[in-house]
Structures are given as structure tokens and as C-alpha cells.
Design brief:
The chain is built from 13 helices and 11 strands. The chain is an alpha/beta fold and 313 residues long. The protein has 2 domains: 105 residues, 2-Layer Sandwich (Nucleotidyltransferase, domain 5); 185 residues, Nucleotidyltransferase, domain 5, CATH 3.30.420. The strands form 2 sheets. Strands 8-7-6-9-11-10 form a 6-stranded mixed β-sheet, with helices on both faces. Strands 3-2-1-4-5 form a 5-stranded mixed β-sheet, sandwiched between helices. The radius of gyration is 18 Å and the shape is globular.
Length: 313
């Protein structure tokens, strides 16, 4: 059956429509910055809610146009870090259901990690055990698995929006701000990796055993596009791109030293990402460094694909 999956992230709303044969009909993204201010206030901003609800209404129009029925058997709207962290999450959920007639599922970090692993691990060549790194707007999930099975996962309170709001205030950020952002990223991820290691211990696996690092979501795919020197965002060329650790470090440093306008002028940087791309790059570079691997592989398939697959059964 044809289905539609909507991922309401901290930085963007993403839509995937899959047809009866399991083929992609449409994949789209709109930046809404739902997490704006959540780290500081603990609440969702009125303007951010309005932007995000409008984007989801746009998604509804597109899935209806593609012939997908508007019911829970055919559509799933899943919200992640920004909504689950907000004290007023029910206000957002009510606004969405009133607007499109579908309730919002607020998924926890464990399910978010599981979806990222399911969507990415089989989509690019990997050696087991592998780790999937999903840098979102408000959180970063790290999940280790082998033979398609999740062994352990952790969700950290760190993402491109959250780190940018915490540490990267200047345009461009100062040397001190960049150093603080790197310190925060490393400290937060180190704590997360320690928890991940504890979860792996009963399986007789250590983080040193990890053979492949797979990176998903907008930060990783945009960095891959920049590494390839693409004039525009080309999903087919980005998928499966290998980015070496030193290349990632160089990209992160370059982006963090740039202004928003300079980042926005880079061809493959999609609208709304320039404001937080440097924060995400710092997070991803720190994760690869702490994992001690020489490179990562980027997957365009991720949690959104897994959401659609689960709908189809």
C-alpha cells in the first residue's frame, strides 16, 4: 500500500511517500527550526509551532495528492527531540491533529536510534559491528548493531540547533566560541559513548570493535555534498559517499569560521541549514574522532525510510 511518513525534527520537517511497490514517490524537507529556544526555555515558541504546523499541512496536501489516505494505517507523524523535551508538547500535538487529522507520535531516544539504524544499516556497504550516528537538531543518536540487529544505543542531548544556541553566537563565531562548542560536543559525546559501551558489554562487543561508521541526516549529507564539490544537492551522488576524518575536521573548521551568508552561498546547502550547519559539523567531527575511526560513510536512507517501511509492514 502507499504510505506517507513525516519526521518532525528539531530543525526540519521531512516527508517520504512510498508507493504500493515500496518505491519512493517523493522525499522532501522544509526547515522550520521547531527547537528554537527550547534548550533555554524548555518550551516551544509560538512562531516555531506555527511554522511547523504549516509545513505539516503542506505535507498533508502532498500525500493526499499522491493518493495516500489520511489515516493512521497509511500515515505516521513522528516527533523527536524538540517535542519530547518541551514542557508544552501537548500544545503542539493538539495543533497538528486539529490541522491534519493525524495524531503526532512523540518517540523516545531509543526508538529514534532504532529507526536510524534500521533505515541506514542496510542501505550502504558496512562491516559488522557498525555504528550509526544520527546528528539531529536537538539530539544525536549513536547506535551499534550487527547483522541488522541493534545491540545498544544512546541518545545524547546534543544536536546542530542545540549546540549552536549554546555556544556559537557570533557571525562568524569567535575563536573562543568555537573552542567552547568543541569542548561541549566532546564532553557530551564522551558521556554518551561511555553509556553505549556499557550497553555493549553484555554482548561481548566494545567500541574498539566497530568496523564501520554510518552517518545519517542533514548535517552528514550536506557535508558529503560539500566534500564532493557539488554545485547543488544531489541525493544519488551523496548516498554512499565516504568522508575521511581529516576531511571532516577541515570542513567543520571552515564552516565554523564562516558567516551564515557564506555558508548559505555554498551550492548544496539547503535553505535554513546555513544557520546551524557549523554546529552539526562540530558534533559529527567530534563523534568520529571519539570513535577512533578513519572515515565514515554517509547514507541518505535513515529513520524516515524505516518509518515508511514499518507502516507498510
Amino acid at each position: 500500500m502507499s504510505v506517507a511518513a513525516v519526521d518532525v525534527g528539531s530543525n526540519s520537517v521531512r516527508l517520504l511517500i512510498v508507493d504500493d511497490a515500496g518505491e519512493r514517490v517523493l522525499r522532501d524537507i522544509v526547515t522550520t527550526r521547531l527547537a528554537e529556544g527550547v534548550d533555554r526555555t524548555g518550551r516551544l515558541a509560538d512562531a516555531a509551532i506555527a511554522r511547523t504546523v504549516a509545513a505539516i499541512v503542506g505535507c498533508r496536501d502532498r500525500w493526499v495528492g499522491a493518493g495516500v489516505p489520511t489515516d493512521r494505517a497509511h500515515v505516521r507523524i513522528a516527533a523527536t527531540s524538540a517535542v519530547r523535551d518541551a514542557a508544552d508538547r501537548d500544545r503542539f500535538r493538539t495543533a497538528v491533529e486539529d490541522a491534519v487529522g493525524i495524531p503526532v507520535d512523540v518517540i523516545d531516544g531509543e526508538e529514534e536510534a532504532s529507526l536510524a539504524f534500521a533505515g541506514a544499516s542496510g542501505a550502504v556497504p558496512t562491516e559488522d559491528p557498525c555504528v550509526v550516528v544520527d546528528v539531529g537538531g536537538g539530539s544525536t543518536e549513536l547506535v551499534v548493531g550487527r547483522a541488522g540487529e541493534v545491540l545498544a544505543s544512546v541518545s545524547t542531548q546534543l544536536g546542530c540547533v542545540r549546540l549552536t544556541e549554546r555556544a556559537l553566537h557570533g557571525d562568524p563565531p569567535s575563536d573562543a566560541e568555537r573552542a567552547e562548542a568543541s569542548r561541549v560536543a566532546r564532553a557530551t559525546l564522551a558521556d554518551g559513548l561511555a553509556t553505549l559501551a556499557d550497553g555493549l558489554a553484555p554482548h561481548g562487543v566494545t567500541l574498539a570493535d566497530v568496523r564501520t561508521v554510518v552517518a545519517v541526516a542533514g548535517t552528514a549529507t550536506t557535508l558529503a555534498a560539500l566534500h564532493l564539490g557539488l554545485p547543488t544537492y544531489e541525493e544519488a551522488r551523496i548516498h554512499g559517499t565516504v568522508v575521511a576524518a581529516d576531511v571532516l575536521d577541515t570542513l567543520a573548521a571552515r564552516l565554523a569560521a564562516s558567516t551564515v551568508a557564506e555558508r548559505a552561498a555554498l551550492g548544496p546547502v539547503q535553505p535554513g541549514r546555513a544557520e546551524v550547519l557549523h554546529g552539526g559539523a562540530i558534533v559529527l567531527a567530534a563523534a568520529l574522532e571519539l570513535l577512533g575511526r578513519p572515515a565514515l560513510v554517509v547514507s541518505e536512507a535513515d529513520s524516515l525510510d524505516a518509518l515508511a517501511a514499518r507502516l507498510r509492514g
